[in-house]
Design goal:
CATH topology of the largest domain: Arc Repressor Mutant, subunit A
Number of domains: 2
Helix content: 55-70%
Largest sheet: 2 strands, antiparallel
Number of strands: 2
Strand order of the largest sheet: 1-2
Number of helices: 10
CATH superfamily of the largest domain: Homeodomain-like
Strand content: under 5%
Oligomer: single chain
Length: about 220
């Protein structure tokens, strides 16, 4: 069995928190229970009162990994705005844990196989090279040589998520790189990544990372 890899998460209650065998470096982060329950009730209503994190070992979750790294970096080099930034990042981390690692959801973090089928790989290459375009389901299906319904099933089976969600993830990934590495305006980045409406970009970015595009840029550069 392979050991834990960079970016793997090991969520669970504090009691019995795992230290994965073979982990050369493992960060242990304790969440205040009150914060977990408050955010859970805000998101899920009364059902949030029974929230519990699920024990998992070596789960690929790169969003959680990024948020934890940002928290640690902020704690190691505190500044005038560090408290507010850490509160924002902490809340984003709790939302991510509730969405993917609690008893309140059946979602799983995105995890794709290393070698998808050639026809699916062609579609992914098209997504990457043309993500600024308005790629329709019929266009993607044609690239894969399948009908739209066959394509959706084949893509989900191969990648674990539907095509539109995978494409959105690629667009957010590119936007993160541009926000961190360039000074281009947020609206310009949104358009270059295929988001026709800035509001749609902001909503999608926050849903994926827990932060607004501007907050993400500030956190990565602080």
């Amino acid at each position: 069995m392979d050991g834990p890899r960079p970016g793997d998460s090991h969520p669970g209650p504090a009691a019995g928190a795992p230290h994965p065998e073979g982990a050369d470096r493992c960060g242990l982060l304790h969440l205040v229970p009150e914060l977990l329950h408050d955010v859970a009730e805000e998101l899920y209503g009364q059902a949030g009162r029974a929230v519990a994190l699920v024990h998992r070992l070596a789960v690929p979750d790169h969003t959680t990994d990024r948020l934890v790294r940002l928290l640690l970096a902020e704690a190691e080099t505190p500044g005038p705005t560090s408290l507010l930034m850490m509160q924002t990042l902490g809340r984003a981390l709790v939302i991510q844990l509730l969405r993917f690692h609690s008893n309140l959801t059946t979602e799983q973090p995105d995890s794709a196989p290393s070698h998808p089928a050639p026809r699916i790989q062609r579609v992914i290459e098209q997504m990457r090279s043309c993500m600024e375009d308005d790629l329709s389901l019929s266009q993607l299906a044609a690239t894969g040589g399948l009908s739209p319904s066959q394509f959706v099933r084949a893509f989900r089976d191969a990648m674990g998520v539907p095509p539109h969600r995978y494409l959105r993830g690629l667009r957010i990934e590119k936007a993160q790189a541009l926000l961190e590495q360039t000074d281009r305006p947020v609206i310009e980045i949104a358009l270059s990544c295929g988001f026709g409406q800035p509001s749609h970009f902001a909503t999608s970015f926050r849903e994926t990372t827990g932060l607004s595009p501007r907050a993400w840029r500030q956190a990565r550069r602080s």
